[in-house]
Every structure is written in structure tokens, then in C-alpha cells.
Specification:
The chain is an alpha/beta fold. It contains 10 helices and 14 strands.
């Protein structure tokens, strides 16, 4: 079966997420059908997601992946079969709103160097609050700790219009990522080895190393449940976050920064693992150790990837230490941070 080229494709990756499709897909159809084609890529679900989609939404194209390769490979496999100018990677646990697509596409079309864009992400359960996974655009400090405008660690801000400006950011959330399809494929898409978590940061960093812009658009708003596949407290999530964080640093940092960054990260990760232990998170404690071991074993493979990347000191990186600023200096909001420390 052949499919004509389309301008905008909303692609939802599903894995055993029938409950989310039932709850949120109607809003996607209602507020997207005039601006985009809607596609569901299924990661070999074992529930009855596929039969539900065929019955309830026969007009929606379904791409059935041959395996559950995680978030990264799942999207790469699905998007390889979608001929579009723009992709919107959309989590199944997101409620979209009226006119959520056009402002972002208009912004991206205003500058060929804008490769990726994200909307404002607010919490589905607390609609006035920013949501953890993306908020008002993602950043990272020089030691690899990600944070957002509107969210530092577990501290979420209320949206009172303080981030209603269009700005360049370091990374855009994979929960709702607008990306130019040609650029996505040219730079290899998401890294399959990440499986899940931080693959969007790695992808955005690769683009920034090639002088593309990652931008936040406040005129589009969506509401995210969060933690749809893995629970928020999960040793598996801990493992993936620590392993993938080291991997993205090793792949993307300039050579003159790798040693000193890793030298500080080792004791900080040790402190984090001990905190897990004291909080009763025995599985999380061992997950950190397992993550480090998995990263060290993967270094030869990651070194080959690193050689293919053009490295530079990119913009929008926070050149301070967000851990010290947040926990020791008690800076709890993005605007509390020293703005002159952003590169």
C-alpha cells in the first residue's frame, strides 16, 4: 500500500496503551484533523489496542512495528514509513487543545534553521501547573543534568504567563516534539540504544552541534499525564536515566570537557545512589551501579558514534551546576538561576 506525501503527520507511539487512546485520541482527532494526518505506530502491543483503533477510528492509519524496541526504535521504525514534511511525535497520554498545531508550524516555517519545536506542556492532573516532561522548554547544565523553564528537579511552577515568550532552548520534549522530517532522517533520528529516556536530548544536542535551533512556542498548549509506560518511581526508569545520561554526555561533549565532567559526575552519582539506599530504594541503588557498568561496557560502540559527530560548545547550555544551585543555594525556579551562566 502506498501513501501520498503529507505536510504534517501526528504520530502517536503506542504500547499497551488502549486506556490512553480511549481517553485522549478523541481530542487529537478533534483538534488535528484539519491540520494534520494522524497515525498510530504500535510497538507490538499485547492488549487489544489495534482492534480498538480499527473499530473506533477506522480512518486512522496504523503502523504495526515488528517488536517493542522502546521509544527510540519504535519511532524510528514507524517514521521510516511516513512521508511527511513535518512530524509531530506525540505521547498517547496527552490532551491537545484547539489550534495546537498551526502556531508551531508557522514558527518553524519562519526560519529554515529551526529544526525542532515544542509547545507549552502543562499537567493534566493540575492544569495550572507546568508538567515535568518539558514544561516551557528543556535545558541542561554542563554536567549533564536536565531541567526546564517551569521545572527544576521535582519543583513545578504554576503557569502565570512568565514563560510566554518564544525562545531557543537546549532540548524539546519527546512527549510532544515537532520536527522537520528531512532533518530527522538526515541526522539519524533517535538513538535506538537509548530505548527510552533522554533520547530527545541526545537528538537535539546532535542538531545543535550542527547549528540548528531548538525552539519553544508558548502559543500552543497541551496537557500531559506523564509516566504512562513506566511508573514515576521505577528502578528501570532510574537505570535508563543514569545510563542514558552518561551516554549522551560521552557522545556529545567536546573533547576538552569529557574528563572533568565525568570526574565530578562519579561522586555525585555515588551520593545519589546512597540517597536511594537511605530512602529504602534498594533496587534504585543497584540500578545506578548497573547503569554505570552498562555504560562502560558500551564505550567502544559509543566511541564509533562519537567520531561521527561534529563537537562544539553549543548555545543554551547552563554553565553552572544545577545540583548545587538547587539543593545548596535553594534556587527553586528557572528565573532564580544566574542567566549569565547560559552559554
Amino acid at each position: 500500500m502506498s501513501f501520498d506525501r503529507i505536510k504534517v503527520a501526528v504520530v502517536i507511539l503506542n504500547w499497551n496503551g488502549k486506556k490512553f487512546l480511549e481517553k485522549f485520541l478523541p481530542s487529537v482527532v478533534k483538534y488535528s484533523q484539519n491540520d494534520a494526518s494522524i497515525i498510530v505506530g504500535d510497538n507490538k502491543s499485547s492488549d487489544d489496542s489495534i482492534s480498538y483503533l480499527k473499530q473506533a477510528f477506522p480512518e486512522i492509519r496504523i503502523i504495526e512495528n515488528s517488536e517493542n524496541g522502546g521509544f527510540a526504535k519504535g519511532y524510528n521504525d514507524a517514521l521510516a514509513q511516513v512521508d511527511a514534511e513535518y512530524y509531530i511525535l506525540l505521547n498517547s497520554d496527552i490532551e491537545v487543545t484547539e489550534n495546537w498545531i498551526k502556531p508551531v508550524i508557522d514558527l518553524m516555517e519562519s526560519d529554515p534553521n529551526i529544526a525542532v519545536c515544542q509547545p507549552k506542556i502543562r499537567s493534566y492532573s493540575e492544569p495550572k501547573m507546568f508538567e515535568y516532561a518539558g514544561a516551557a522548554g528543556g535545558f541542561i547544565d554542563k554536567y549533564g543534568y536536565p531541567f526546564c523553564r517551569g521545572r527544576l528537579f521535582q519543583s513545578m511552577e504554576e503557569d502565570i504567563g512568565q514563560y510566554n515568550d518564544v525562545v531557543d532552548v537546549f532540548w524539546a520534549t519527546g512527549a510532544c516534539m515537532f520536527v522537520k522530517a528531512a532533518i530527522y532522517h538526515k541526522f539519524g533520528g533517535l538513538d535506538n540504544d537509548f530505548f527510552a529516556h533522554m533520547e530527545e536530548i541526545d537528538f537535539c544536542w546532535r542538531l545543535k552541534n550542527n547549528d540548528f535551533r531548538i525552539v519553544y512556542c508558548p502559543d500552543s498548549i497541551v496537557f500531559h499525564v506523564g509516566g504512562g509506560t513506566l511508573p514515576k518511581i521505577s528502578w528501570r526508569k532510574t537505570y535508563l536515566n543514569f545510563r542514558n545520561n552518561f551516554t549522551l554526555l560521552y557522545k556529545n561533549l567536546p573533547s576538552n570537557q569529557i574528563f572533568k565532567v565525568f570526574l565530578l559526575r562519579l561522586p555525585l552519582d555515588g551520593i545519589a545512589s546512597i540517597k536511594f539506599l537511605f530512602d529504602g530504594g534498594f533496587k534504585d541503588f543497584f540500578a545506578v551501579a548497573k547503569a554505570h557498568f552498562a555504560f562502560y561496557v558500551s564505550i567502544p560502540k559509543q566511541f564509533k558514534k562519537r567520531k561521527s559527530i561534529k563537537h562544539k560548545q553549543v548555545k543554551e547550555m547552563y554553565m553552572g551546576n544545577i545540583v548545587f544551585d538547587y539543593f545548596l543555594k535553594k534556587k527553586k525556579t528557572f528565573k532564580d538561576l544566574s542567566q549569565n551562566k547560559f552559554s
